[in-house]
Phosphohexomutase (Flavobacterium pokkalii), 321 residues
Amino acid sequence: MKNVYPLQFVPILKERIWGGEKLKTVLNKSIESVTTGESWELSTVEGDVSVVANGALEGRTLMQLIDESPNEILGTAVYQKFGKQFPLLFKYLDAREDLSIQVHPNDELAKERHNSFGKTEMWYIMQADADARIIVGFKEKSNAEEYVSNLKNKSLLSILDAVKVKSGDVFFLETGTVHAIGAGLVVAEIQQTSDITYRIYDFDRVDAQGNERELHIDQALDAINYDKVDTYKQYAKEVNRSNSVVDCPYFTTNFIPLDGEINMSKNGETFTVYMCVEGVFEIAYNGVKYSYKKGDTVLIPAAIDSFVLSGKASVLEIYIS
């Protein structure tokens, strides 16, 4: 493939009833509303396909690049496993208000019902207001009957586990985990390529027209994992090293506290994505330096086998192993 280089994409901005302005004030995104909830950084979800923002390939879509050069973009192992599908979706979220309480189906259920991947995901907390919290799973092992009873009585929150969070916390959510991002949080989210969400409670909110958002209570019943789950991930923060955070069948995420310079080598089997969650850094490749700041996301095509990271930053490194 000609013109291979680190690729940035035009953010796909999403209005949300719970969104705010922190994607601009914290992450420097060009938003114009006061209710922008999400910035989709890398996506091949139908109707929301990312477009290259820099260099010779500017204006081309990620799907076009994959279709023309799957091994060079995705990597040999990823292409063999997923075909010409980009298997992950990368986002930044700003929750001015609580998100709905929701759950995502597993691969089998999502395939059967929606011809889609499931939605295993992880959250990296980039910024947290005082007392901000998330909801992740049940306080104790539950069951469908108890869950439905509390849902009907509007007491669902009493059996769900609310956890206070701070900047740098990481949570790994397997499919079936009932969850919600709470108000006052900016989050980097890495997930399987899927937009399948079963919304089960929305705090009785209405939109500007007085309408409540659709709920998916019946669909969620057999998608929920009623066991108590441990979602919090502890991880090392050794400087200038790729510290393992999450290693699952769908993606591997490392945390790099960058302070100086690292020579990186890749084997061509997978693409790599870097999300800058703090600071600024550069990638030097083929005699050119590419600069990134907090809130930027960059795709390193699999065909790039060596490059140099430099700067002072906190960076998430994501690939498929």
About this structure: The chain has two domains: 12-221, 243-319. The first strand starts at residue 12 and ends at 20. Helices lie at 22-25, 62-68, 70-73, 76-82, 107-114, 144-152, 217-221.
